[in-house]
Design brief:
The chain is α/β, with parallel strands linked by helices. It folds into two domains: 92-218 and 414-465, no CATH class; 240-359 and 363-411, 3-Layer(aba) Sandwich (Rossmann fold), CATH 3.40.50. It has 15 helices and 14 strands. Belongs to the glycosyltransferase 90 family.
Length: 475
């Protein structure tokens, strides 16, 4: 047919072809660019040609800009003077300092992922080229109840770490668990005598004396938008409730969680009022301790009847503004570390903190009688001693409250939390004795799924279902 077509006819066909091809190319390339922009994924090949050259040029400029931003963010983590915050990282990684993280160790940890103590409550993640991948079966997320949304929250955090730091995140892999109790009980692993059989697992809470979990910030910081919803209003709390206006009363509101305590971690055992036993055997080597119930329903009620200024109960619930109207705020840990502590530190009131034996990633920054007043090292009656001390040392109590608030403002905002993650992953990568990813050939990966793919297909729907789709991170 072309041999019978005039010059005008051929020009018309060429124009039609151009109109059909170029929009398709533009749609394809911009879809790829948007996917890369949102998820920080690996660039795809683009056909040669004039339009492709323009797109590649734009892509290169965006990539350079993104790389520049990632380097700036990583530099902020070095220059932001978070050295004191990072101190716990070296302590947590010390058991593997000599042997490092080997292929056999990682294979062994993942082989027991479904069994106690992990019981599939968590996820394995590998970063390669700054991009996170899932290395444990995603189908397991549907077998762990409410832990699925916690896992999904951590996966969204991985996406945001990649978006913020890019290839400043080294190639590294790890397991992060969402379980309520610490997972690496030293007693079960020869007291850490063989690092090749000591699970390297990331978690938000542990006891230093009995556990080797590697501490990370609790994902609740992001799930509850701690920075914008609470920390950003620290000065407002102080202005609304200056020290002299606060009510001199020990105040607290708690859910009556039982605390699971291993008999192999005796430092976590709790005795009640006058030495009463408040822990019951729940398994071959497990106690359930009614710490909160006992304090609310026995000690606090009796203390109130005796005339002590105490308002500690389960109901009615009160918001943080109401908490801030009191001089003395009680903190009791829950099943393990309670995320209520960081909330109380913001309010400009004196925190009276249970010495439970548990520690989170920032607890080394807060010291007794510098940032809080301790109690219940042995018995709950020590709360009365704390109240009497606060009454007699009102000016010092105000100083302690202000110092606690300053620690929260300096070290517990979103950027500091993400810097902690970056620094931890960098230190873990230095200890890893093999190359990460299936292409490296050092380890077999039965599961290798980009986190971005899981989040697009299922994860973000899970976040929306639980009203977690507005989680905040770096900015």
């Amino acid at each position: 047919m072309a041999e019978y077509c005039s010059g005008a006819c051929r020009a018309t066909f060429a124009l039609i072809a151009l109109l059909l091809i170029v929009p398709h190319a533009a749609k394809t390339h911009y879809a790829e660019l948007n996917h890369r922009d949102h998820y920080g994924g690996i660039s795809r090949a683009v056909p040669h040609g004039g339009f492709a050259t323009v797109v590649n040029s734009r892509f290169s400029r965006r990539s350079l800009h993104r790389d520049k931003d990632a380097k700036a963010a990583a530099q902020y983590c070095k220059d932001g003077d978070f050295t004191a915050l990072y101190e716990t990282i070296g302590q947590d990684l010390a058991p593997w300092k000599e042997t490092g993280f080997t292929v056999s160790l990682m294979d062994w940890v993942l082989s027991g992922f479904k069994q106690y103590p992990l019981r599939s409550k968590g996820v394995g993640v590998a970063f390669v080229g700054g991009t996170p991948h899932i290395i444990t079966p995603p189908a397991l997320f549907n077998t762990v109840g409410h832990h699925k949304r916690l896992i999904t929250g951590y996966l969204e955090l991985m996406i945001q770490l990649a978006k913020t730091f890019g290839d400043q995140i080294p190639d590294v892999e790890f397991v992060v668990t969402t379980g309520d109790e610490p997972s690496t009980l030293l007693h079960h692993y020869g007291n850490g005598s063989n690092p090749e059989r000591l699970p390297a697992v990331l978690r938000f809470c542990k006891s230093d004396a009995s556990h080797a979990d590697i501490l990370v910030p609790d994902v609740h910081f992001h799930m509850r938008n701690f920075t914008s919803n609470l920390l950003a209003h620290a000065d407002d709390f102080t202005a609304q409730w200056p020290w002299e206006k606060k009510k001199p009363m020990l105040f607290g509101r708690f859910s009556p969680y039982k605390r699971a305590v291993s008999m192999r971690a005796p430092e976590l055992y709790r005795s009640g009022k006058k030495g009463k036993s408040i822990c019951k055997t729940a398994g071959p080597d497990l106690w359930f301790c009614d710490v909160r119930k006992h304090f609310m329903w026995e000690w606090a009620r009796a203390a109130n009847r005796s005339g002590l200024p105490v308002d500690v109960a389960q109901q009615p619930k009160r918001d943080m503004h109401y908490h801030a109207s009191h001089k003395w705020l009680l903190h009791l840990d829950g099943q393990t570390c309670s995320s209520r502590l960081e909330q109380l530190l913001v309010l400009g009131s004196l925190v009276v903190k249970e010495e439970s034996g548990y520690r989170a990633f920032f607890h080394h920054l807060i010291k007794p009688y510098e940032h809080y007043v301790p109690f219940w090292k042995k018995l709950p009656e020590e709360a009365e001693d704390a109240i009497n001390w606060a009454k007699e040392n009102d000016a010092k109590a105000a100083e302690i409250a202000a110092a606690a608030q300053a620690v929260a403002k300096r070290y517990l905002h979103n950027k500091a939390l993400m810097c902690y993650w970056l620094t931890l992953l960098q230190e873990m990568s230095r200890l890893q004795r093999y190359r990460t990813g299936p292409d490296a050939g050092d380890r077999v990966y039965p599961t290798w799924l980009p986190v971005a793919d899981y989040m697009a297909e299922e994860g973000r729907a899970e976040l929306r279902r639980h009203h977690m789709d507005a989680m905040e991170f770096w900015s």
